[in-house]
Amino acid sequence: EWVPWFRESELKHGRICMLATLGYIVADFVKLPGDIHLVSSLEAHNVFVKSGAMVQILLWTGLIELITIPALRSLGTSDRAPGDYSFDPLKLGAKPANLEKYKISELKNGRLAMLAFSGIITQAALTGKGFPYF
User: Fold this and answer.
1) Torsions phi, psi of 8, nearest 5?
2) Which of 50, 29, 41 shows the shortest CA–CA distance to 121?
């Protein structure tokens, strides 16, 4: 009964961590214009909390979570697979053989990204340095 919900959660967290890992590293090299953006990736959280920018991120992610509640509630009663929101603009899953390969790849890469992001944050906090964090 809970396994589809756990898989949905694992896929969601994996997708977020894949984006977060890439974004955290890129932010060490590419800076947006403005004085507020001239901080390290590690310091950015506190700076944006003080400026109020994190409230906007919280509101938008909260809205997305609210929109996905009906899909999560119907997970056990519908034929929708966990993590499938019928969003495939590039038609990567058009062939069933490709779809299975991509599902496994996404799961494995998401798990790796969760570990990678945890390691990056830990290393950046311990050393106080940017990429490559040692």
Assistant:
1) -60, -45
2) 41
**H or E segment to which residue 59 belongs:** helix 53-73
95, exposed or middle or buried, with CB in 10 Å at 0-12, 13-18, 19+?
exposed
Please check the confidence at residue 104 and state whether its pLDDT lies above 90.
yes
Helix, strand, coil shares, percent, the chain, to 5? 70, 0, 30
Give pLDDT tens digits for 41-57: 889 989 999 999 999 99
Residue with tokens 């990736």: 41
Give Cα separations from 55 to 42, 45, 52 (angstroms).
Answer: 18, 11, 6
Whole-model pTM: value is: 0.85
Q: Could you tell me the two tokens for 74?
A: 């119907």
